[in-house]
Amino acid sequence: VFSTDVAVIANCNADAVIAVYPFTPTIQITEAIISVAQRPVFVGVGGGTTAGKRVESIALDAELHGATAVVLNAPTATEFVQNLADDIDIPVVLTIVSLNEDLEKRMLHTKANIINVSGGKDTVKIVKKLREIDPNFPIIATGGPTEETVREVIQAGANAVTFTPPTNGEIFKGMMEEYRHRYD
Length: 184
What we know:
By secondary structure, the chain is of the alpha/beta class. It is built from 8 helices and 7 strands. The protein has helices at residues 6-11, 27-36, 53-64, 78-87, 103-108, 123-133, 147-156, 168-181, and strands at residues 17-19, 41-46, 69-72, 92-96, 114-117, 139-142, 160-162.
C-alpha cells in the first residue's frame, strides 16, 4: 500500500507499506509508520528536493528504526545511490519515472537492490523495457487507477504493485451514508 496515513496502514491487508511523500522526510513520520505497520515498511528518504548528507542521515535513521528498505526519488545521482548502498545494510530502492532515463545504468550500475517504477501513463512501457534489460531484477511499479491497469503492470513484469488506498474521508463518507440510510 502507498500511504503515510497511520490509520490506513494499521488497518490494511497489504503485504508491505511504501511511505514516500512530497516533503523532507522525518524520523518522526518514519517511527509513526513503523510503529503501527504490521508489515515491512519501505521508507522514502529523499533524493529529489532533499539531497546529499541529509538523505544519508535519514536513510541510516530509517534503518536503525526498523525500516525494511529505503526509497530514493528519481533525480538521485547514480554515484550517490552507489555510496548509500555501501553505507547501509537494508535494500536501496531507486525510483525511475521516465523512459528517457538511462534505464540500463540506473538498473544495473547504481547498486540499487530494487527498482520502483512510477512513470504515470508510461509505467507499463518502462517496466517492459526494464524486463528486456534484466528479466529477474526486482521491480515495484505503481498500479494505476483501475484493476485493468494493475493487471497490465503485472503482465509487463512487475514483481510487486503499489496501490493507493481510498482516503479516510472517502471511507468514512461511505460509512456515514450507510448509517444515515438506516434512519430513512
